[in-house]
Design a protein that fits this description.
about 500 residues; alpha+beta; Nucleotidyltransferase, domain 5; seven-stranded mixed beta sheet; six-stranded mixed beta sheet; about 35% helix; about 25% strand; binds adenosine-5'-diphosphate
């Protein structure tokens, strides 16, 4: 039940920073605290975080928000956690000592392992059970790498002396003083070890990836009791009642509760997730199937597509070639032209993600003339984000999703030129919410649900409030010309790298 003077504490433990956000019982944001932490790049393609950096940053932001709640005369009645997904930690079950740095989702060290498994013909089985592809992105090969590269770990893992956890699991372990080794179904669904069809850790997959099942956490619904955060951690005890991977939490924060509703987050990259309700669709178009959320034992599935570079192309224009002094400037610069004048950019700066999946593709710009100026670069960069979104939406359509609109968030969603162009190119309504902290809101909603402060997810839909709706109004033939230009650019880029 909702109590007077109560508040919800949401953690958004991301790739580059940890945030704690305090929400009132009716979902208003009361305070936010954020700490960045160090990214460790031991070699090309390797990305690690120190477990202690993650934990210390969470401790600091959590303590600030607990103090803020106290200063407002509020008591925290439940906490929710949203986290960077797939990132892999292993620790000693008795001492809690972490045995190796967290291997971050971006880390590519297990590419060869994945290629070998793929060459041996395991892709179809893995896809069928997990909805994922064979890629270093997911946790399983990262776990095996740690066990095989740190002396003496494998026998300890086999004896049940070690715990594996994604970041949610690690944080809950820390917050409960080592009492609870648990995770939620969304995080489990990103490990490559969890069968998303029967909702269980999969013994065959554990065998294939060489991960002892004794290391795995208990998997729970995304809303429910995960354990009690001890009073000495943040200065106040409270139950942890909601957990989801960040993109899944954002899907909830964006109130994508019906089949075909889609959210797209535009940060460094872009992550699109469509609700497919009880249909666990196996994509024919290179998208991933995943668990959107699991409530009361009922799984809601999702289809996901990621674009590696979206906001990062604007970062590159700003920091790489010095064309902009702020990311926001790209809007006025792009809008200073009434057309792209045939200039197209394919921002494959780190290869192309879904639906093309071409790691060796590299960025290109086409259609330059003597009239091409900085505005064309800005415009082509922004337009490329909408065109890439179009490719994802088309892949979703081909997989049987009928999108009713697109809900956007992330830093780049502030760009009105891009959002209008997106609506025009997709021929869909693009909705930007008033509260763009959708990931934290999703974690808070799960915590409200898990602590009984609300009874259904649907009841929380009213917490989502529209800020701006962008309607498509571009002339059809103009749209087709633009799309044809983009498709030519993509084809040429893909041809170049083969
Ligand atoms: P992340 O969480 O991945 O760090 P954010 O959601 O904070 O990303 O968004 C930051 C990204 O969005 C940066 O890559 C930046 O270049 C881009 N960005 C921010 N504001 C704008 C804007 N007004 N127009 C275009 N790009 C923007």
């Amino acid at each position: 039940m909702r109590q007077e003077n109560s508040a919800i504490l949401a953690f958004d433990q991301g790739t580059t920073s940890s945030r704690a956000i305090l929400f009132s019982a009716d979902g208003s944001m009361l305070g936010v605290s954020q700490r960045e932490f160090e990214q460790i790049f031991p070699a090309d393609g390797l990305v690690e975080h120190r477990a202690s950096d993650i934990w210390q940053s969470v401790l600091q932001v959590g303590r600030e928000m607990v103090a803020k709640a106290a200063s407002l005369g509020l008591t925290i009645t439940a906490a929710g956690i949203a986290n960077q997904r797939e990132t892999t930690l292993i620790w000693d079950r008795k001492t809690g000592d972490v045995v190796y740095n967290a291997i971050v989702w971006q880390d590519r060290r297990t590419s060869t392992h994945c290629k070998t498994l793929s060459d041996e013909g395991h892709l179809q089985n893995v896809r069928q059970a997990t909805g994922l592809v064979l890629d270093p992105y997911f946790s399983a090969t990262k776990i095996a790498w740690i066990l095989d590269n740190v002396d003496g770990l494998r026998p300890r893992a086999e004896r049940g002396e070690l715990c594996f956890g994604t970041v949610d699991s690690f944080l809950i372990w820390q917050m409960t003083g080592g009492v609870r080794h648990v995770t939620d179904a969304t995080n489990a669904s990103r490990t490559s070890l969890y069968n998303i069809r029967n909702g269980m850790w999969d013994a065959d997959l554990c065998h294939l990836f060489d991960v002892p099942m004794a290391m795995l956490a208990e998997v729970q619904d995304s809303a429910g009791y995960f354990g009690d955060c001890r009073a000495d951690v943040f200065g106040q005890a409270f139950p942890i009642c909601g957990v989801a991977g960040d993109q899944h939490a954002a899907t909830i924060g964006q109130a994508c509760f019906t089949k075909g509703s889609i959210k797209s987050t535009y940060g460094t990259g872009c992550f699109m997730l469509a609700n497919t309700a009880q249909d666990c669709l196996l994509s024919e178009n290179n998208l991933l199937s995943t668990i959107a959320y699991q409530i009361n034992g009922q799984v809601t599935y999702g289809l996901e597509g990621s674009i590696f570079i979206s906001g990062a192309v604007i970062q590159w224009l700003r920091d790489g070639i010095g064309l902009l002094s702020t990311a926001a400037q790209s809007e006025a610069l792009a809008a200073s032209l009434c057309d792209n004048d045939g200039v197209y950019m394919v921002p494959a700066l780190t290869g192309l993600g879904a639906p093309h999946w071409s790691p060796s593709a590299r960025g290109a710009i086409y259609g330059l003339t003597r009239d091409t100026g900085p505005a064309h670069f800005a415009r082509a960069a922004l337009e490329s984000v909408a065109f890439q979104t179009y490719d994802l939406i088309e892949a979703m359509r081909a997989d049987g999703i009928a999108p009713s609109g697109l809900k956007v968030d992330g830093g780049m969603a502030d760009n009105n030129f891009l959002m209008q162009f997106m609506a025009d190119i997709l021929e869909l309504q693009v909705d930007r919410p008033a509260l763009t902290e959708t990931t934290a809101l999703g974690a808070a909603i799960l915590a409200m649900l898990g602590s009984g402060q609300t009874t259904t997810l649907e009841q929380t839909a009213s917490l989502w409030k529209l800020e701006t709706s962008f309607q498509p109004h571009l002339d059809r033939s103009k749209r087709e010309t633009l799309l044809a230009g983009w498709q030519t650019a993509i084809k040429r880029t893909l041809l170049d790298c083969c």
